[in-house]
Amino acid sequence: MTATENERVTPVSIGTARSSGPSVQDFLAVDSRSVPESLLDHSSASQGATDIPKSRYVDAGFAELENEYLWANTWQMACMEVDLQNPGDHVVYDVANQSLIVTRTKDGAIKAFHNSCLHRGTRLRSDDGRVASFRCPFHGWKWDLDGKLIELPAEWDFPQVWQQPDSCLPEATVATWQGFVFINMADDPQPFATYADKLIDHFDRDFDMAGRHRAFWATKEVPANWKVCMEAFGEGYHVIATHPQILEFTADENSEYSIWPDSPHVTRFINGFGAQSPHLAELSPQQVVDAYMAFSVGSAKGEIPEGMRVDVPADANPRAVVADLFRQAMHARFDADLSDCADTELLDAILYHVFPAFAPWAGVGQSLVYRWRPGSTPDTCFMDVIRLAPNPDSGEIPDPASHQVLTLDQSWHEAEAMGQLADVFQQDMDNLPKVQAGLKSTGKRGVSFGLYQETRMRMHHRMIDAYIDAGLEADDRDAAELDRWRVPAD
């Protein structure tokens, strides 16, 4: 066996190999400001090396098990508190085959009701808005904002219903955190504070999401399974082939992926910016800064507008240079003092993930939020992108951005105010239907994830199985129902 072949043998300690070049922790060690303590908390845990059955992405039978046991038993972000400012304000949250009305009650509480009339199942609300009560459009049954039945036409004919305890709209459990509203449809769910403890610990200490306003929000229907879409935004490995235009200022292969065994519902991915990809020959600090600035102003030709180019010393840290430029630009744009923000907070993609499908970015410069939900078939899903901007120091907070909805046939370029991010997102979208189609090939029946860069994905699949297994056991159903799709043990 040659030396090259030796190097390709899977190591005994799976998932310990890392890319050459500086790590995220190396970047943080030379940051020009004090780095948030949370970012120094990183952890890795091997998830094995087995292939994941491709059928998990395409089979209706597996999607049905997810709908019944995953989505009905996990915490999900349903909306933002800013959408529920007054009594009667409500958001319709649809996921899998379930629908909830998340609303503000008269006493200021937030509740989530199953969006189904207790008469014959009609959806009570199809759109977000503000109402004084929830009235069925079919026969007129009506519930108040607390979910209590208050009107039943021809009530004489329903003595078994009127004024009975089960005439109230069934509720899901609600939790709020840093401006977001979460729901869980399980009968007795694990408290959100425990479920998302690592996220809460990090953000409550170092990242003030509540001190920001919603500057952009769009939902797009995507022609791929929700896991295919979610996984496309969970690693930096695809940058070299999908986003080559950002390689000059993106340390793609040097990204950090954290799994905390004591907080399994929370993981993290950090992709460093303002540093070049290890796939390229060495660039000067000037070249890295120029490339980043050209991208930031949306220059397709990589040209920097006159007056914006800065001279960068040969021994400078390009991350520090770009971060300083961002501090100045964001202060002018948002009237917010970011002088104490670390370079990493302004530059890097610091993407946390709360299982199964909520992903908030930490930091300031790249403050995005993602959410994924399954579509009507295993071949479609919905992806939400929200951008949060720092509140102005003046205290005059802009109105929250309205909700834009993009269909399967529309591109991210049609989302107003998305800016140059639309180019990057659309590159991902162009790949996803190809992935979904290729997963149906029977030539190779498994997906081979990387042992470090994609280890969180393998972990998520194992967690999906754990939720389905628990549900099957609780319903006294044979676990063999999952066997044809189950992630093999190593």
Notes on the protein architecture:
It is a single chain. This protein is α+β, with helices and mostly antiparallel strands. Among the domains are: 21-46 and 207-278 and 314-438, Naphthalene 1,2-dioxygenase Alpha Subunit, Chain A, domain 1, CATH 3.90.380; 76-188, Rieske Iron-sulfur Protein (3-layer Sandwich). It is 26% helix and 22% strand. It contains 14 helices and 20 strands. Strands 2-11-10-5-4-3-6 form a 7-stranded antiparallel sheet, with no helix packed on it. Helix 4 (60-70) packs across helix 13 and helix 9 runs parallel beside helix 10 (318-334). The longest helix is centred in the last third of the chain and has 20 residues, at 455-474. It is globular, with a radius of gyration of 24 Å. The mean pLDDT is 94.
Number of helices: 14
**End-to-end distance:** 25 Å
CATH arch. level architecture of the domain at 21-46 and 207-278 and 314-438: Alpha-Beta Complex
Main beta sheet: 7 strands, antiparallel
CATH topology of the domain at 21-46 and 207-278 and 314-438: Naphthalene 1,2-dioxygenase Alpha Subunit, Chain A, domain 1
Quaternary form: single chain
- What proportion strand? 15-25%
Contiguous low-pLDDT stretches (5 residues minimum) are none
Q: Nearest-angstrom radius of gyration?
A: 24 Å
* Percent helix range: 25-40%
What spatial order of strands do you see in the largest sheet?
A: 2-11-10-5-4-3-6
Mean pLDDT: 94
Q: Give the class-level CATH name of the domain at 21-46 and 207-278 and 314-438.
A: Alpha Beta
What characteristic shape results from the CA principal axes?
globular
Instruction: Give the class from helix and strand content and strand pairing.
Output: alpha+beta
Strand runs, count: 20
